[in-house]
Amino acid sequence: MQAHQLLVQRTAHYYTLGTVGVHVKQLWIVCHGYAQLADEFLECFRSIDDGSRLIIAPEGMNYFYKKGFSGPVGANWMTRHKREEAIVDYSNYLQNLLDLYRTQLDSDVRVVILGFSQGTATVCRWVMAKNPAFQDLMLWAGLPPEDIDYAGQKEYLKNKNLYLLYGTNDPFLTPDRMSVVSEIEQKNGIDFSETPFEGGHEISEEALQKIIAQLN
Q1: C-alpha to C-alpha distance for 116 and 112, rounded to whole angstroms
Q2: What is the pLDDT of residue 9?
Q3: 15, 23, 33, 135: which is deepest, by most CB within 10 A?
């Protein structure tokens, strides 16, 4: 038996809040977590849709029934099966999406990249593979992958703001898992600004408003 690969075109889906124009000062790319859909996830950011931001929520291209063989559908960015090909595919997808909108906005627009839960690893792998121009990287309710050589791209990362936001009651982020962040920072000479908030595995409205205040 021999394994083969064939590159094909696929249709990717994404949703937006805001409209393109000179009024846009910030361009946000927000990547959902496991078993979510992009339109549902985008609702978490409706409160910051004030006309100064264009917020884009791409959707993972892998779909599945969340319970059994019918009913609600969720999406994910990758599984461990054929993971390397999946990383290449979604990195190309996200880079093409960003490039599409960067050309339609002012050159000084602030680019904010946010990943939630499984989306945190997704955005980290994307930015380290493609080196897109951005100002802020927000990892929300998830951790940076341990298998990335951040130290090898310190020059690329040095003028960028790296955030780690998490709920103090998040059942997925145990003290043992959180200790991984310190190990990654020490090993690679980078620093994530940790912003804990009261809550669980969620986009906290209060925490979102606080981070918006910092950006402004």
Answers
A1: 13
A2: 92
A3: 33
The position carrying tokens 């909108």 is 101
Rounded CA-CA distance 139/87 in Å is: 18
pLDDT attached to residue 212:
96
- Per-residue HEC secondary structure of the chain comes to CCCCCCCCCCCCCEEEECCCCCCCCEEEEEECCCCECHHHHHHHHHHHCCCCEEEEEECCCEEEECCCCCCCEEEECCCCCCHHHHHHHHHHHHHHHHHHHHCCCCCCCEEEEEEECHHHHHHHHHHHHHCCCCCEEEEECCCCCCCCCCHHHHHHHCCCEEEEEEECCCCCCCHHHHHHHHHHHHHHCCCCEEEEECCCCCCCHHHHHHHHHHHC
Amino acid of residue 101: Y
Give the integer Cα–Cα distance in Å for 22 and 199. Answer: 36
